Amino acid sequence: MMKEIVVISGKGGTGKTSITAALASLAKESCIVVDCDVDAADLHLLLQPDFAHQEDFYSGKIAHIDKTLCRNCGRCADVCRFDAIDFKEGHYVIDALSCEGCGYCSHVCRPHAIVMSERNVGSWYHSHTKYGNEMIHAKLNIGAENSGKLVAKVKKEGKAIALAENKSLLIVDGSPGIGCPVVSSLSGANFVLLVTEPTLSGLHDLKRVYEVVKRFRIKAGCIINKYDLNTTVCSQIEQFLEEESILHVKSIPYMTAFSQAMIEGKTVTEYTDPVLKKLLEESFETIKQTLGV
Asked: Do 96 and 146 sit in the same domain of this protein?
């Protein structure tokens, strides 16, 4: 039976994506990898997918002005509250980055020169990585919204492939923070791996994101990365994990191998540091035992 692991963090820079890539490298062909961090996707930098299949993703609306019908009356520009309609070179034009797709301009346009069409907000991909596993990932266009819907799309595609191919694991790299993409990432998960660091902001955001996790009633575990940078805050994190019955998966010391592996475009398990590799292998085994995989 397929199990879904979602890796999230309350803030960026904790090592979330590096740890997700490490788990994917250890699972190899037994898992499907899904990158739900569509706003700032970077998992592909470590897993090196081939981008074999691409599809455009449409969500929301955007206005378009037909210049052959437009009378240049300016009603559309008068009612637009987002300053998305400009008069340039004798014609009114839509600024795609500013248009919110509300459709008010199309309602006031007497000659019906403005039409609302579906907005292309990005693309999603079905790839194969250098570790032999399949990866579903996406990229949100600059200034585009509805990232939660794109996250739902890649998760749906990844889960369908995992079930069809009888894979044992779905490993999901979630977005940092607590917004809509994170909520969409958590839907349907069996286990949430929280990645944090021993800083006051790390502890604050860990508590904040776990409030979201609790609403889904999903079993959670935590990796404390760079735990030895601040032993006082690390102790506070450990106390929080105990109070909330969150599985303390592993504490990983500060190691330059983390950043050096990223510079070389490698996962931390592929890098030549045996101590770090062993810590990640033990973490993966603990998670699999918890899930009964």
From this structure: no
